[in-house]
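Morning!

This is the sequence you dropped in the shared folder:
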Amino acid sequence: MKHSFLDQYSDRDSIIARLDPRTKLITTFVFILAVVLTPPNSWLAYALYFALVVTLLTLSRLPAFHVFKRSLVIIPFVLLVAIFIPFFKEGEVVGSYNIWLWQVSVTRSGLQVLWNIMAKAWLSILSLILLTSTTKFSHLLKGLEQLRLPKVMVMLLSFMYRYLFVLVDEVMRLKQARDSRNFGGKRLWQIRTIGHMIGTLFIRSYERGERVYAAMVARGFDGRSRTLEHLRFRQADAYFVTSLGLALIFISLFNWLY
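The structure's back. Tokens below.
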């Protein structure tokens, strides 16, 4: 099947792609932290944050449609969590609706919180798309390890990303085998068949994991992420960190003054 890798555009030559992964990790964290700590009614600050991240995306030379399509993935999850806030938060009522035997009201403060959560989530996911799309996943793991993230967590991320596609292919083969045997019958029979598929997938995954671990130990695996390139900070990394830091300080001061 066709897979959509997180770092499929990491081989594009750009100013952002040439930065050290640790630089991009730290600046992404600082940017998300600044967005999250911004007050809910500071729409001018959010507009400046958006202009900043769009500028960085332009410098990274990523396809605009690719970025926009991936950024929309977060919207359903945010709506699932925050969609009920306008109906339960107290404040000035801007609308009242009758739903069967219930009367629900939408408050202005609730709508403000909803849009605030949506804006913060979208800006954060845009920055994460910029990070993952311009950095090879192996270099990203190496950067996380050198930033002293626990090795167990780095290895879990590595295996999860590497073998997620293998498991998806395994599921597709099981589904194809099921359909080729004229899958049908009563609902109970269908549920039982799907249960057998889940059990088979678990056993195959466990056995594959044992074989992969044995092969890695035989090749000297010691729990560390290794890449052919050594990570090191350059002058461009210092310029980027300084520029982004000054931009975030400017946005904060501008929002505080106006």
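Headline: The mean pLDDT is 82.

More detail when I'm at my desk.
O.
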